[in-house]
## 1
Amino acid sequence: METKANLIDGEWVAGGDSIRNDNPSNLNDPVGTYALATPEQVREATQAARRALSSWSVTTTQVRSDLLIRTAMELLDRKAELGELVSREAGKTRAEGVGEVVRAAQIFQFFSGETVRYGGENLPSVRPGIGVQTSREPVGVVSVITPWNFPIAIAAWKLAPALAFGNTVVFKPSEETPGIAWELLNIMQRHGLPAGVVNLVNGRGAVIGKAMTEGVDAITFTGSVRVGREIAGHAIASMTRVQLEMGGKNPLVILDDAQLDVAVECAVNGAYFSAGQRCTASSRLIVTDKIHDRFVDALVTRMRSLKVGPSLADGIDIGPVINQRQLDAIQRYIQVGKDEGAELIAGGELVDAPTPGFFMQPALMAGSNALRINREEVFGPFASVIRVADYDEAFAVANDTDFGLSSGICTTSHQFATHFRMNVKSGLTMVNLPTAGLDYHVPFGGRKGSSYGPREQGKAAVEFYTVGKTAYVSYV
């Protein structure tokens, strides 16, 4: 099998080693073999990005816009093919894989417009004979580090604004999903990506992670809390701009007056779709006393209707988790929950599928908010039900977490919905909707341990990828 190379300064180059990328839904289906960059190659990529910055940063906005829109159009034209690749790499169902490619195209489309739309202001000074102009300039060389759970969508929402606003990039995708990143860079090269403007370096964080933080002007990272904090330490020491998205322990509050069918679908979608491997997943289901038993019974019935299996098979609702390490971690959390007194209500069993892979039935446990299963991110098809007396207790439990990414409430009460929306300590909040599910044109990000730095996506992205300048001009 041909080893796919890294892209450094416009050339495809071999790495110091390679990794085979296997389909987590069928271990007999290798997706490809990909070169692993060395720390020295990351430094070469950073130097190439630095050299390219001087020309790319002053390229006309139309040139940058054209690159992004042409990339978007090819993604849409090839959505079925590329969506299947995403499904084979990340274990998503076919519909999820295609949907993610479409979302990436929409992000590139959006920022192709922002390229020619962002700018500054002409303002009168408070002093006579003086004018004031504000403008935005590229932040510089950006280190982009993306996870495996949304391998092209998250890459798009970091790469597109970086390029739109005149920055250059060193891009490290997850070693679990290098294939779609390689295809994306191939597409961008065909549509005029200049040498050095985006450099692709595949590799394990333990090997090249530190090099990804050196010699750059900004770092944008989506991944674990542990790694995010390490990156923040490196960034602060060198006064490097940093943007971190690090997960959540997201509450979905279900009140007595909720429409039961709506609440169940919100919980199933938020907790279990995409095999629960979403930082916005509903991992804590906080349910008031009078609806609790009916909700749990209905949720278990709905869970039993979900079909777990190979991601590209027809009729599959939930594919595999990403690898054996993640599957083992989820199983350990189930045991930890039992050891601490939680009840396993349903699911959690490994699934014997037609192909070898990392399959498990979605799990539902019950226990207090103090348990580890309700304090730490499990990142899989796993949720816990927490019984509370009323809205006040539900609201307090929802905020009782070190995370603050997404939250949701199911209720027909305008009073409770409004109070929750305005006061819950999360960056995202949903009313009668799953906690997962985002639009691409509005800000994304959380609070507390979930996020650090400026927001991602939409018009908010300009805050991270540019630096403001204020100029004073004498008219005398």
Note: The chain has two domains: 3-246+450-474, 250-431.
## 2
Amino acid sequence: MKKYNVLVVDDDKEIRDAIEIYLKNENLKVYKAKDGIDALEVLNEKDIHVILMDIMMPRMDGMKATFKIREDKNIPIIILSAKSEDTDKILGLNMGADDYITKPFNPLELVARVKSQLRRYTSLGNYNKNNDEIKVGGLTLNKKTKTIFVDNEEVRLTFTEYKIMELLMENKGRVFSIEEIYEKVWNEPYYNCENTVSVHIRRIREKIEVNPKNPEYLKVVWGIGYKVEK
């Protein structure tokens, strides 16, 4: 059985060591970094499958590190922060994070979130036998390469953004509620996660639409949810 690697980025050694204990109990290999710069160095050397990223750190904080990572990697990133305000959560998601956990956290919840991200990330490999492309107007989604093109130009999406588009494009014209999108993409029960889904939808539109305020593909059905159609 393949052993998956988790990178824990936090300037507090006690927190890093505690998280390592929880994750090792789940047979996960843990790498640790004390700030964003160290994290980038680890990513250049190791094959990492999930990142747990603190926000407030010296040298390079979690927001800047997340933004930097998203320039060329779609590894799932879970933000860890003592800040619980919605604005901080939304900022983290806007920078490219996939999930958000507030300190102090429940170890069982932390482990569950990590395993959820791993299931979603590694499940992409299940499509390797299906080379079919999904096309909706000028959008093309390639299941084998996990890429999306707009008018033959590749658009770089995060892991979560890709999964949202895969769900909607595979079901062209079908309207999915925010709750359905969250439960199918995040693979966990929906609970007050409207902002999480909305932020990801907005980011996708900014990448695939000529005019995000008047979307051509990713459309809202007011009071119901979202769909992809041309």
Note: The chain has two domains: 5-124, 128-228.
## 3
Amino acid sequence: MSEPPSGDAPRKKRATLRDIAALAGVGTATVERVLNNRGNVRPETCRRIVTIARDLDYFPSLPSLHRGVLRIDVLLVRPETLFYTRLSNAFERLAASLGKDIVIHRSFVTEHDIADFVSRIRNAPHRRAALILACPAHPDILAALREMAMQNLPIIQLIARNLPELPYVGIDNHAAGRTAALCLTRTLTHRPGALIALCHSMAYANHRERIDGFSDFIATRPHGAHFLREVLFDRDDPEEAARLLHQAIIESPDLVGVYTAGGDNLRIGDVLRRHADRQICWVGHEVNAITRVCLTDGIMAFAIDQSPETQAGLALHACLQRLGIIPSLIGFEAPKFRLVTPENLD
């Protein structure tokens, strides 16, 4: 019997939520939550579901109004830090999962070179479809972002919300700072005394919001058993952070707690181990190879992790939605931070 002509071949059946759920080993409700960015799904599960959906060609192809390759620029800072390394690696994995019609261009910008930052925002070496970035809140940078937004360039702010009128993908940093203060004061209920906070500087909106939330919570405590002595700026330099913390411990015999609002904690644990007899309580940000050890051995009490992998995926999803590549997001839920202890490390 002869084979039917190729023109009569049955059309490939489009994948369904049930197909994706079966391959991912989850329920269809979980798949629906992930594909509509409705939150409350573990990052690993999200990545597995999105990868399977891509493999099954679940997402629609590029609309005809997009001709040629769609190029999305991602501008990041401080590649030497563990946090931004995680974020960059997340975008690299996302780029590998996309079809040939969408290309993600990652690049790092020196945070102090404002002129270069402005130039990268205003000018691209290729025809750019959208921009995702994490940047300091310098007036010239913000002016350049407003200028490009006026030209209808889709812009997604990542990590820090510098301009309220532009889309933002990131955690509630003010709430993160308040959570850190809550954890410290509850842990130190029977140990009144001074607290200090360390962060990069006030150049980044996310750090400002965290410090504001932390100090607001401490100031409104009814009994005043703890007080914020000072905020120290280390510019996320591990050696400077270690020096400042060591000096504060030596000069403040009543110091009982420290909050590190930045994302790189390479030397904080070393300093606290040297002063183990002081039993200073430490709450910081991000789970990485260093903080995992500190959590396990009791040097770090709590870590507030904002899962940069999840934020990268949400930022790309929001970007593709604004470009009309995927359907409009319904009930978009902002990413949540996790409070990590030695008991829920995974």
Note: The first strand starts at residue 70 and ends at 76.
